[in-house]
Amino acid sequence: MSNNAATIELLYKMADDQLILGHRNSEWTGFGPILEEDIAFSSMAQDKIGHSLALYTILEQLGERAPDTVAFTRKANQFHNCILTELPNGEYDFSLIRHFLFDTAEALRFELLKNSSFEPLAQVARKVRGELRYHTLHANTWIKQLGVATEESVSRLQGSLNVAIPYALGIFEESPFEKELITSGIFAGEHELKALWINKVEEVIGETNLQLPDWKLQTPILGGRIGKHSEYLQLLLDEMSEVFNIDPTAEW
Amino acid sequence: MYGGGNTFEEVKTDSFSQEDPIKLAEFEARIERGEKIEPSDWMPQLYRKQLIRMIEQHGHSEIIGALPEGTWITRAPGFKRKMALMAKVQDEVGHAQLLYSAAETLGKSREQMIDDLITGKSKYSNIFNYPTFTWADCCFISWLVDAGAIVNQLANAKGSYGPYCRALDRICAEESFHLKYGHHCVIYLASGTQKQRDMFQEALNRWWPPMMHFFGPADKISIHTQVLMKWKVKMGTNDDMRNQFLDMYVPKIWELGFTIPDSQLKKNSETGRWEYTEPDWEEFKRVINGDGPCNKERLEVRRIAEERGKWVREAMKAPNQKYVSPLA
Question: CATH number of the domain at A2-245, please?
Fold first, then answer.
């Protein structure tokens, strides 16, 4: 039973991350710096919302409410996404840096989950990791290009990196169930994921003129996993549910 | 979507009289035989100019048209609609990319086209100068504006310029999914609650006049461009396209129990053509010349997006950037 609670907690935070960041990515539709980026962010948005639906569907099988209800009717304090995903898009440099930091972690997370002892999650992970390869390929390509290109591009990316890192460390906010997840073979845990992530981030940033901060001096911005969010999440949710809530019992 | 492929500016048809008569005759014979004209082939200046204008306007209609629907992506009700609408609007932006590439084969760069859009020098489909107040407005566009665009695009796909025709073939294949998606959304509104039905009826009332404008001015008041028809640049008259649309979609709208806000609308069984209240062409002219409800907003959004993205485009041109070879 406690295993079940641990799994549910893990699934919610992953699903909420994907839904909220997918929503943010979709806001780029029509506004990208070039048409190709418009299209790329829209593709990633579709993938992410699709991944969240796959995870909410597992949750439904575990006795939680239907995906539409869960996604469109909860309040901000019932969401478990990390705060990084809910921050407004800002300029393209911030969206790109967030995409890089988050998707690097997400790709590694699904890599770890492909052998999860919880088979429904392992199945989703095996499917999703192939798609996430394109997300990280996209992020790395742009970081490596803009991270060396012009004074302005390097300075913009550096500024956004400095802002985003403490939030990105919030991805790895540990749950009360870490030990159970690890010992039952469901998930290797946030601690291990974070170590892998730091290596990967250092590797990519090492190929650019960008500087990473001293990890030891960073204070992670936590709270998202336990429903303590920035003011931006409720606004996002109000917008997302505007039509749905005209009549939540109607079929649209 | 979205483009009408209709250009509403006057064409000076005498400007091709200075073309080499032998080359012109060969060119016209090729078109007559149903051959496609390719980018490196000889073509009259007027043909080139007119096609650039038409394809460019179509491209602009796609990216501007992404705005009134795109604004509903973040509000789409439920996973099914949210994912479908995202994919649909993304298709439209992809169409702009395809079309700009097709127009570039005729010698005008994408940057120049986007500059001309922002400065108001080149036009886009007039219908996107109207606002989408509710989810039902968004559904109207997905179903009926796309339907109207398909009528135009299927005709234009039989035109004479190879790159445009090939782009249109691909676009039409995607559009057919948009149409199904839009129709599906409207069926749910029609068979839903009273509030949902009212939402769509109100959207229909708002959008019907711009929808009638969509195909361009009535034949009796529009400039006849025989030479463009002969060169297969323009493939049908505005009234023909409008009639075809009415033929296909009025029965479907009625079938869902909605009222089209035109008491004169009926099919004449003798002529086989639809009769309707003449749309207000003065309003059409006013809106296309910049004085519609959303013209300023649409161009302003596009201008801001271009301005905010400028540093990215500059950085892409920087000499010290490394080429990262794709892994896939």
Answer: 1.20.1260.10
- Tell me the CATH number at B277: 1.20.1260.10
SS3 assignment, position B17: coil
Domain count, chain B: 1
- The helix or strand, by DSSP H or E, that contains position B266, with its residue range, turns out to be strand B266-267
Residues ≥6 apart with Cβ < 8 Å to A27? A89, B73, B74
> A71 in helix, strand or coil?
helix
Enumerate the residues of chain B whose CB falls inside 8 A of the CB of residue A145.
315-316, 321-322, 324
CB contact under 8 A, B75 and A72: no
d(CA B238, CA B217): 7
Residue closest to A90 by CA, chosen among A147, A28, A154, A182: A28
Q: SS3 of B37, please?
A: strand
Q: Could you tell me if the ipTM is greater than 0.85?
A: yes
**Radius of gyration over every alpha carbon of chain B, rounded to an integer in angstroms:** 21
Domain assignment of residue B148, given as a range: 13-290
Using the Cβ of A134 and the Cβ atoms of chain B, whether some distance falls under 8 Å is answered with yes
Residue range B140-164: mean pLDDT, rounded: 96
* Count of positions (residues) in chain B: 328
- Predicted structure pTM score: 0.94
Looking at the DSSP bridge assignments, the partners of residue B274 are B267
